[in-house]
Amino acid sequence: MSELKPIVLYQHASGPNPWKVVMILEELGLPYEEIFMDQSSVKQSPYTSLNPNGRVPTIQDPNTGITLWESGAIVEYLVDTYDKEKKLSFDAFPEKYHAKQFLAFQISGQGPYYGQYAFFKFYHPEKIESAIQRYEEQTLRVISVLDKCLEGKDYLVGGKCSYADISFISWELGAQGMITEFGEKTKQFTNYSAWLHRLLARPAIARTLERKAAMNAHK
Ligand SMILES: N[C@@H](CCC(=O)N[C@@H](CS)C(=O)NCC(=O)O)C(=O)O
After folding, report:
1. Which atom of ligand 1 is nearest to the CA of 56?
2. What Gene Ontology terms describe where this protein resides (cellular component) (predicted)?
3. SS3 state at 9
4. I want to staple 164 with a disulfide (CB 3.0 to 4.6 A). Which of 67, 69, 99, 143 is the partner?
5. How many CA atoms lie within 13 A of 76 on its CB side?
6. Which residues of the chain register pLDDT less than 70?
7. Cβ contacts of 172-175, under 8 Å, gap ≥ 24
């Protein structure tokens, strides 16, 4: 892959979604360069001409000419375009669709519920207990689904670690980092905990998380 030009990733030091993309780039050994954005510049031109949603991540790939936003779409693009050896993805039926299913669950279930849980617990100016409770329940429900799907399995799809597994890591760690009682509340989900440890032991993931931690420690 040495002939590839670096993929440009617009990213954020602490938010979970761009780091999900970094994990895939690292796993696939793709060259990339990062442009770190702050909260206000993502809402303004020129960034909004790349991503009208005013959020990160966005990528620009000079090798194909694409500009793409939404982390799930970026993950799919990267594996479709560059994972020719199917290190993290699948050609075979039904695994190919099961991996898409879990990515869809991550994007629509994990990301929004965990995000709202953190928002109502820490950032909303009023303390609305019913909203906190609702999103905590939904967060734990997502984990219970993962735990069930992982019964008797090391990974979600096809007996190997794929983008489907990796896509969940960022938000799991985000929730653990923000919510101190999270570890206690998720202790009962033993398949889920073992799976997360397995994923965190991967060199590309450990490398990514070390860099993210170092970056946030200097703030
Ligand atoms: N659905 C989007 C969510 C992106 C998102 O919310 N990104 C956060 C960082 S993790 C962000 O840009 N926040 C800035 C803001 O909301 O203004 C994706 O998966 O890419």
Report:
1. 12
2. cytoplasm; nucleus
3. strand
4. 99
5. 16
6. 1-2, 218-219
7. 172/110, 172/196, 173/16, 173/209, 174/16, 174/114, 174/118, 175/114, 175/117, 175/118, 175/139
What's the confidence (pLDDT) of residue 213?
92
Q: Is 133 within a domain?
A: yes
For residues 66 and 115, membership in a common domain is answered with no
- Beta strands (DSSP E) in the chain are 7-11, 32-36, 58-61, 66-69
Count up the domains in the chain and report the number. 2
Distance 184 CA to ligand 1 centre (A): 27
Q: Which atom of ligand 1 is nearest to the CA of 71?
A: 20
* Residues of the domain holding 64: 7-87
Do 44 and 61 lie in one domain? The reply is yes
* 161-177 per-position pLDDT tens digit: 999 999 999 999 988 87
Question: Which atom of ligand 1 is nearest to 20's Cα?
Answer: 19
pLDDT (0 to 100) of residue 39: 87
Q: Which residue has the tokens 């000419």?
A: 65
CB-count exposure of residue 213 (10 Å: 0-12, 13-18, 19+): exposed
Q: How far is the CA of 17 from the centre of ligand 1 (A)?
A: 6
User: Cα 167 to chain center, whole Å?
Assistant: 4
